[in-house]
Amino acid sequence: MTDTTRTPLVELKNISISFGGIHAVDNASVDLYPGEVVALLGHNGAGKSTLIKVLSGAYKRDGGEILINGEPADIGNPRDAKKYGIETIYQTLAVADNVDAAANLYLGRELRTPWGTLDDVAMEAKTREVMGRLNPNFQRFKEPVKALSGGQRQSVAIARAILFNARILIMDEPTAALGPQETAQVGELIKQLKKEGIGIFLISHDIHDVFDLADRVSVMKNGQVVGHARTEDVTKDEVLGMIILGKVPPKAIPGPGAMQTA
Amino acid sequence: MADITTTASANRARSASENPVKRFFRATEIDTRLLGMVGALLIIWIGFNILSGGLFLTPRNLWNLSVQTASVAVMATGMVLVIVTRNIDLSVGSILGFVGMIMGVLQAELLPQLLGFNHPAIWIVTLLCGLLLGAAIGALHGSIIAFLNVPSFIVTLGGLLVWRGATWFVTSGRTVAPMDATFRLMGGGTEGSIGATASWIVGALACAAIVATIANSRKQRKRFGFPLRPMWAEYFLVAIGCALVLGAVLIVNSYPWPVAIARKFADANGIAWPEGGLFIPHGIAIPVLIAIVVGIVMTFISTRLRFGRYVFALGGNPEAAELAGIKTRWVTVKIFALMGILCAVAAAISTARLNAATNAQGELDELYTIAAAVIGGTSLAGGMGTIAGAMLGALVMQSLQSGMVLVGIDTPFQRIVVGMVLVVAVWLDTVYRARAK
């Protein structure tokens, strides 16, 4: 998949961010090509989510730069990120609990009638269409999202991300709240989105969730990038070694956080 | 298409197993909460009617009740949005006092000097200045809350003192009176009512609006193949809506002008004074009309506009709203500015009604407003509440108060009862929500 002559869809270069003197992310660089799934792995607190929130506009970086299609991108808030076609599905399932699925799908980008009022009917119709593709069993369109199961809420969050023709999709622990069947569904969905040429960052602390879906893995530890590897070049155990010890296997490309071998 | 037919059949299967009452509520889609409030209101009304020996449910008392409710009802609609976003506004009574005092000084002292006494533009200039001032005060509160991150409780608690003090300062505590003659119409009274014919016209328009709304919603549902209410349920809703509207008009039209005023009117217009007295109905009071219009506009804002959607999303999950790209700070500023405007409207109503601006005007109104919103089903945890509920809540609060006055309960006990009702209402709300989960 990875073709070094092409321009990456996203390139995060030397990103640093710190909170109150703690370097949550320190000089981290990752990239993503169209139609590629990159798994960003690491322990809880390794800095994966923080790094990706810089890309999605939720945090402001202290240093480094973001390139989208090779050009510097100015991302200061979530609205900016959406302009670049970056959609994020957050670990915390960022949905507004008290409104229905359609309202959540279109939150911040509501369809409006010529009079400037909300076009609820059109939004619900489109929601039914998208959700039908994603999760044909989903029927509870009129109920507030808090009445839904974890999987259903997840499908609402995913539907929201793909509704607006995202080019870059960030999924933070997309299957953490789900049962096995729903996890398999999300897996199918990722494959489908990949075929459409969307680049996907999968963030997880559990390698088993994502190893089979990912084309490449990037491993983080203590806010630094341990290394990158193509999944076909490494075994799960080797990746585990990267996550736990920061030990970089021979076929992987070491990063600044790699364990220094004497 | 397939999924729609399965929903329909699933609904049918579900409804077959339900008892007739549940089926009725499902078919008509009536909010059982709102219905519970209407029930509580009826109990209060009938209870006070019995205790007062039939004084409560008279056209005169109900008409007065509607006028007394108007000012708090107007502010309660804004308080819903404030509380929905997990904020609170303790300053509404003081803003009402300050804006009312400024409007009083403008129309009674400043504008007559500029434009001449009883100039026809005085009331509108006064009102516009009041609305602008209210919006500015609200926007100031909102900006401090949103951009300086001071909790709304503190900002508006400060506002409670600041604006009350400012009210005092403007005239050094002196009461300003009288108000402009046209301005006074906003306060109701014999002059400030629209009369029988106009009331029937308003009633008829309201009925037409009910029919049009229900027909339009059915058409929209049909267009996109959503489940429809059964035809009988639609007719039922139209019938009950129209009956309520026309019944209310009938009541306000059966309250005649007081004899003295009617006689003066008859003399002035050269009408012969008939044997049994002259029956001139009040009709709907202007402040009540203002409150109804405010209620409709606020319902429109909160359910049909993007701003309203953001308010509710922000209340449900502030983080999600922020991540969805909503400018949450600006939404907060706008909510408080809107609250300020509504305080100005309420100030116009209450100064006009009193025919004076005093430095105690609106005292304790913040509590009645908050109580109305909360009794009306606005959740203090955020994310839930309706405008109609809050206005009904204001009516419940005012009914309690007027009822206690009629029955002859002393002021200290009135406050004790109102305080307890508020606590019980929130407790019932908690119980209801725990069950709903």
Report what the structure shows.
- The complex is a heterodimer of chains A (262) and B (437).
- With 262 residues, chain A is of the alpha/beta class.
- Chain A folds into two domains: 159 residues, P-loop containing nucleotide triphosphate hydrolases (Rossmann fold, 3-Layer(aba) Sandwich), CATH 3.40.50.300; 75 residues, no CATH class.
- Chain A contains eight helices and eleven strands.
- In chain A, strand 7, helix 6 and strand 8 form a beta-alpha-beta unit.
- In chain A, helix 4 packs across helix 5.
- The longest helix of chain A is centred in the C-terminal third of the chain and has 16 residues.
- Chain B folds into two domains: 314 residues, ABC transporter involved in vitamin B12 uptake, BtuC; 90 residues, no CATH class.
- In chain B, helix 6 runs antiparallel to helix 15.
- The longest helix of chain B is centred in the middle third of the chain and has 29 residues.
- The N terminus of chain B is likely disordered.
- At the A-B interface, helix 2 and helix 4 of A face helix 1, helix 9, helix 12, helix 13 and helix 14 of B.
